[in-house]
Amino acid sequence: MEFELSPEQRAVRQTAREFAESEVEPVARKAEETETWPRDVWEAAVEADLVGVEVPEEYGGPGMGTLESALVSEELARVDAGMCAALGTSFGSRMIEEYGTESQKEHILRGICSGELIGALANTEPKHGSDAAHIETTAEKDGDEYVINGVKTFITHGTIADYAVTTARTGGEGHSGISAFIVETDRDGFTVESEIHKMGWNASETAQLRYDDVRVPAENLIGERDHGFYQLMDFFEQERVGIAAQSLGIAQGCLEQSLDYVREREQFGQKIGEFQSIRHKLADMAVKVEAARRLTYDAAARIDAGGEPTKLASMAKLYASEIAEEVASEAVQIHGGNGYTRDYPVERQFRHTKIYQVGEGTSEIQRNIIADELLDGQG
Question: Whole-model pTM above 0.90?
Answer without folding.
Answer: yes
